[in-house]
Amino acid sequence: AMPSAAAYEATVTAPVNIAVIKYWGKRDESLILPTNSSLSATLSQDILHSKTTARADPNFTGADTLWLNGTPEPMSASKRLANVVNALRAKRAALEASDSLLPKMSKWIVHVVSENNFPTAAGLASSASGFAALVFALANLYQLPEAKDGEAGAGRSTLSALARLGSGSACRSLFGGFVAWEMGTHADGRDSVAVPVAPASHWTDLEALVLVVHDGRKGVSSTSGMQTTVQTSALAQERFKSVVPQRMFDMKQAILRKDFDQFAETTMMDSNQFHAICLDTFPPIFYLNDVSRAIIQLVTDFNATPVAGYTGKYKVAYTYDAGPNAVLYLPRQFVRPVLALIQHYFPAPTDVPAADYFADPYKVG
Ligand code: 2P0
C-alpha cells in the first residue's frame, strides 16, 4: 500500500474595501491593469469579511474545486479563478524545484471553501474580499515566503498583484487600513500593486456607514461598464490624465494628516466624477437612483448646517460604487446624528425587520 501522505490546509479572512479614489478603466484586460491609480479604506473585518479555507491533499481526485457560499464550481470554469490558482501553483512549483525536501503540493488537487459573513443582500461587492482571501489562503497553504511577510513587508504587495488577476479592486483587500493601488508603468503588471498608506490604527476616529438603497444585482457589470467607458468617454481620458494623479496625492496627504475636510471633499468629488464618466459613457451607465441622489442632498445640507463647537467644513462624506448604495465616512461624533437624519428622511419600510434596517455602524479597520 502507498504510505498515506499528509494533507495541508490554511484558513484566512480578508476584508471589504471601499474606494475613495475610484478605479474605473483597464489598459490591459487580461492582466487587469488599470488606467488610473486608486485608493480605498478597509472596513472592519469584525463585521465584514470573506473567510476562505484552501486544502491540498494527494488523495483528492477530480478537478480543483471552489465551494462559494456552499455551491461547488470547478475552478477551471472561470478564467480569472484559473489564472489566480495557476499563478500561485507556479510559485509553489518554483519553491519545490529549489528544495527537493518540500512536499510536491503543486501537483495535488486543491479544494477551496469560501464564505462571506455578510449577506449578498448587503449590496457590497464580495469579489474584492473573496479574491484577496483566495490568494492569501493559497499563499499560506503553499507556504510561500510572501505569506510570511506582515503588512509592512513587500511580500504582501507581491500577493496583491495575484489578487488583481482575479478582480482589480481585490488587490486593495490584502491590507487593512488605507490602501493605494498604484497603476504602475510596466506592461507585465509587476508594479501594478497595492501598497499600504496607513494602518487602521492611524485614524481610529473615522467610521463608515453603509446605506443599502437597493440589494439587487447591478444592471451593468463593472468589467463591461468600464470597458465601454474607456472606449467612448472623452471625459474619462481627462480624468485618467489630469485629475486622478493630483487626487491621489491630496488623498494620501489627507489621510496622513487625518485632515477630514480634505478627505471628505476629495472623496465626494471623486465619487461624483466616477458617476459623471458613467453618464459620459455611450450608451450611458446609470448607477445612482433617486434615493442615492436624495442622500447626496441630505449630506450636502447637513454639511452646510453649523454645529456648535465644530469648526470643520465637512461632517460627513458620501461615496457610491457601481450601484445605488451609499457609503458614508464620518468622524465618530457624527454617527448618531447622521443615523437619526437617515431614519427621519428614510424611515424603515414595514416589511424589513428593524435589526436589519439599523445595524451597527461599521468601523474603518
Ligand atoms: C473601485 N469599482 O475602485 C471601483 C469603484 C466600482 C466602482 O473596482 O473588472 O469588480 O473585476 O477588475 O474590481 C469594481 O470593479 O472590476 C470597482 P474588475 P472590479 O472599487
TrEMBL record:
UniProt catalytic activity: (R)-5-diphosphomevalonate + ATP = isopentenyl diphosphate + ADP + phosphate + CO2
Record's keyword terms, sorted: ATP-binding, Lipid biosynthesis, Lipid metabolism, Lyase, Nucleotide-binding, Steroid biosynthesis, Steroid metabolism, Sterol biosynthesis, Sterol metabolism
Pathway: Isoprenoid biosynthesis; isopentenyl diphosphate biosynthesis via mevalonate pathway; isopentenyl diphosphate from (R)-mevalonate: step 3/3
Keyword Lyase: yes
Protein origin, superkingdom: Eukaryota
BP GO terms, sorted: isopentenyl diphosphate biosynthetic process, mevalonate pathway; sterol biosynthetic process
Gene Ontology MF terms: ATP binding; diphosphomevalonate decarboxylase activity
Annotated GO CC locations: cytosol
Protein EC: 4.1.1.33
Domain Mvd1 C-terminal span(s) in chain numbering: 208-365
Domain Diphosphomevalonate decarboxylase-like N-terminal: 14-194
Stated family: Belongs to the diphosphomevalonate decarboxylase family.
Identification of the protein by name: Diphosphomevalonate decarboxylase
UniProt source species: Allomyces macrogynus (strain ATCC 38327) (Allomyces javanicus var. macrogynus)
Organism phylogeny: Eukaryota, Fungi, Fungi incertae sedis, Blastocladiomycota, Blastocladiomycetes
Interval of the full protein contained in this chain: 5 to 369 of 434
